Amino acid sequence: MMESASSRPGLADFILLLGRLLLSLIFLHEGLSLAANLTATIEIFEKLGLSAPIAFATIALQISAGLSVAAGFLSRLGALALALFCLATAFLFHTNFASQNELLHFEKDLAIAGGMFALAAVGAGSISVDHVLKKRVGNMHPLLRAIL
User: Fold this and answer.
1) Helices marked H in 48-141 — which ranges?
2) Which pLDDT tens digits describe the chain residue by residue (148 residues)?
3) How far apart are alpha carbons 68 and 77 in whole angstroms?
4) Gap between the Cα atoms of 33 and 41, Å rounded
5) Which residues contact 41 (CB under 8 A, 6 or more apart)?
6) pLDDT at residue 97, rounded to an integer
7) Nearest 5 degrees, angle CA 53-CA 24-CA 80?
8) Do the Cβ atoms of 115 and 121 come closer than 8 Å?
9) Cα(43)–Cα(10) distance, integer angstroms
10) By the 8 A CB rule, do 52 and 83 touch?
11) 69 vs 116: CA distance, rounded Å
12) What is the pLDDT of residue 6?
């Protein structure tokens, strides 16, 4: 079966894919780094007053939602989770605006959250697992179709 020109991915689809990959990169890198240095990670979290289960949850969120956004699989949920994570990180840990570095991290977290909220609104685009699932699964529950 031949694809029509209108069904082939266009420039916007490739830009959306690039945006997803760039947004997910920081979370995948950070999550894998935290997991690779688990003892140090738990110590850092404890110094911040956070428990080991919070460290594990953070690692799991960063890796799973990062993969979700990168692959475009349940990407709206992954993007929403990471947007909320960025807002929480900004407002809980980067509010010492007397420090230029903390202000930069605060602004970076807000910017990433904005990108993730935009992605949650528009979805992963046509170059994604979500798009393939929508096309292949005809009789899909309306809630699942909305999430994809």
Assistant:
1) 52-71, 75-93, 100-122, 129-136
2) 445 555 688 999 999 999 999 999 999 999 999 999 999 999 999 999 999 999 999 999 999 999 999 999 999 999 999 999 999 999 999 999 999 999 999 999 999 999 999 999 999 999 999 999 888 877 777 777 667 6
3) 8
4) 9
5) 34, 35, 55, 59
6) 95
7) 70
8) no
9) 47
10) no
11) 9
12) 57
Q: How many residues does the chain have?
A: 148
**Is the Cβ–Cβ distance between 61 and 85 less than 8 Å?**
yes
- What's the token pair of residue 7? 């069904």
Confirm if 86 and 116 have CB atoms less than 8 A apart. Answer: yes
Please give the full DSSP string across 3-30, using - where no structure is assigned. Answer: PPGGGS--HHHHHHHHHHHHHHHHHHHH
Query: In the chain, how long is the greatest CA-to-CA distance?
Result: 61
- pTM score, whole prediction: 0.88
First CA to last CA distance, the chain: 25
Q: What is the pLDDT of residue 85?
A: 98
CA distance 97 to 59: 27
pLDDT at position 113 is 98
One-letter amino acid at 78 equals G
